[in-house]
Amino acid sequence: MSAPFGGGGRAAGGLPRLPTPPSGWPIGSYATYGEAQHAVDFLAEKEFGVADVTIVGVDLMLVERILGRLSWGRVLGTGAVSGAWFGLIIGLLLGMFNNQGFAWQPMIGGLVLGILAWTVFAAISYSMSRRDFSSASQLVAGRYDVLCQPRSAEQGRELLAQLALGGRPAG
User: Has keyword Transmembrane helix (predicted)?
Assistant: First the structure.
């Protein structure tokens, strides 16, 4: 039976179309994503079939890092600067496609309207948020496991053992 919208169960890049738990055997476990990524890079350098490999974040947590305190001045200033850039780009595009050569009026108009609009939007957003700090959220894991399909998991384990020994062959 075929899928109702054409194609099989996988997208063009070989990834599942729907969220699917990872499969494979664990061949390494690392404290940071960078270490797991380095392990996969090492496997690739050794010409290992990395298409069989998956990095899985385990014990996920959402971390919200506080960037600083918000004030009306900072909110309005940031809104004005963002609006200035957006308005300048729109005005520049409108000015370039003018029938009488490049015109400065659309650029100035876009700049002014962008500043006004973004400042008003920033003020409304800040007044409704009731937060006096800015932050950035990030999804992180307690550890990162490297999984491999069973057909090549043993070879992957041996290579990662070499990496743990400093890149020298084991034995």
Answer: yes
The neighbouring-strand residues paired with 136 are 65
Integer-rounded Cα radius of gyration of the chain: 26
- CATH number listed for the domain at residues 23-64+133-161: 3.30.70
| CA geometry: angle 82, 84, 86, nearest 5 deg | 70
120-162 tens-digit pLDDT:
999 999 999 878 898 999 999 999 999 999 999 999 999 999 9
CB 114 within 8 A of CB 88: yes
What is the pairing mode between strands 133-148 and 53-69?
antiparallel
* CB 72 within 8 Å of CB 126: yes
Nearest to 33, CA basis, from 162, 141, 163: 141
Cα distance between residue 25 and residue 146, in whole Å: 8
